[in-house]
Prior knowledge:
Elements: E1 5-10, E2 16-22, E3 29-34, H1 44-54, E4 58-63, H2 66-69, H3 78-95, E5 101-106, H4 108-119, E6 125-131, E7 156-161, H5 169-176, E8 183-188, H6 205-221
Parallel strand pairs: 3-4, 3-5, 5-6, 6-7, 7-8
Antiparallel strand pairs: 1-2, 2-4
Amino acid sequence: MSAAAPIAVSVDGHGTVSALLLAPADASACYVFAHGAGAGMAHSFMASLAEALAGRRIATLRFNFPALERGSRRPDPPPVAHAAVRAAVAEARRRLPALPLLAGGKSFGGRMSSQAQALAPLDGVRGLVFVGFPLHPAGKPGAERAQHLRDVACPMLFLQGTRDDLADLALLRSAIAPLGSRATLRVFDDADHAFHVRASSGQDDSQVREALADAIADWAARLP
């Protein structure tokens, strides 16, 4: 498999950020895959999931948010993060114009993508994929972070672990129930917010990543 190609994405008013495009020759879709608040696009989880998706004919465009590009540990405010998501989507559309697009990402990246989509649809995006939607801060259950999802008209895939301390599953199910058929929830037994599983679960982290990739590819194949 070819390596991810380094590219640059210009974010309106916020400079240029680094990005990585991994596009198999037979790609059937492209996922604009935003990173979480604690680690950038090159994190091993992001890289391994991108590689697994490439094996399932899904290209990925990973990118850094501007704050991380500058080396800051503090996440960008939502308007800046939204601008970065829009810029990355536009770059994916420019480079892979024949492919349907998915957007979303890990934790913070997924939430920022959904907020952007709720404010104004992302051009060419047919669905959103959340790899661990951060419904609430750890130890502070609530569903306020899901309120904007009612303004998202496209299909959404939620991939959640049963030990995710940022998403109580009962609260998440209640929050997405009003979305009806637009929302699909896939639950991963024993996985935490980082999709790490304990040895006692009978599986390992690499198997979970493969299952995540399967879930994304299967769902994407059924999109209208």
